[in-house]
Amino acid sequence: MKEIKRIASKVRHWAKNRDDCYQDLWGWCGVCSVKIFKELQKIGKNPEFVMIKKEHVRSSHCIVICDGYIIDVTATQFGNDRAVNVIPVVHIDSGKYNFWYWDYQSAFFIGSDINIIKTKFKSWSDRQNPFIGKGLEKDCK
């Protein structure tokens, strides 16, 4: 888990220091989640990229699940005080953290193939799309 937290913190820092990102990382869940996903793969982990959508919410949210943990560095856009969240899935299942944006059981996409993940962003704005101008596109064919 230490390595997962280190990567999550590194990605949060990377995003906050970009000129094209809001301070609360609004709209950057896809960008940060793809970056976390790729960094975890580089160290031999098998992450899952998750896109969540609840009926009562107009937007969707992206997170990563790896080794039994939900990883989210953009929950600050929803008023969450923690900048880096690495939460055991069992805490979500038990209702300890009852936030729609971590309800992975409401996911409309869960995947581990970066090329399929890339297709899920075709309708997203360029600012929110991790595969347009963020430096993440070079690893995808």
Question: Which properties best describe this structure?
Answer:
141 residues, 5-stranded antiparallel sheet, Secreted effector protein ssei fold, single chain, alpha+beta, globular
Q: How would you explain this protein's 3D organization?
A:
By secondary structure, the chain is of the alpha+beta class. Helices cover 29% and strands 18% of the residues. The protein is built from 4 helices and 5 strands, in the order ααββββαβα. The chain has helices spanning 2-16, 29-42, 89-94, 114-119, and strands at residues 48-53, 60-66, 69-72, 85-88, 107-111. The model has no long low-confidence stretch (mean pLDDT 86).
Architecture blueprint of SSEs:
Layout: H1 2-16, H2 29-42, E1 48-53, E2 60-66, E3 69-72, E4 85-88, H3 89-94, E5 107-111, H4 114-119
Our Rg estimate from Cα atoms comes to 14 Å
Distance between the termini: 30 Å
Residues in β-strands, percent: 15-25%
- Detail the poorly predicted runs: none
Q: Order of strands in the sheet with the most strands?
A: 4-3-2-1-5
Whole-number total of structural domains = 1
**Broad CATH class:** Alpha Beta
Please provide the count of β strands. Answer: 5
Q: Which structural category fits the helices and strands?
A: alpha+beta
Share in helix: 25-40%
Order of helices and strands: HHEEEEHEH
Question: From the 3D coordinates, which CATH architecture would you assign?
Answer: Roll
* Principal-axes shape call: globular
- CATH fold-type name: Secreted effector protein ssei fold
| Mean pLDDT figure | 86
- Tally of individual helices: 4
For the report, how would you describe the main beta sheet?
5 strands, antiparallel
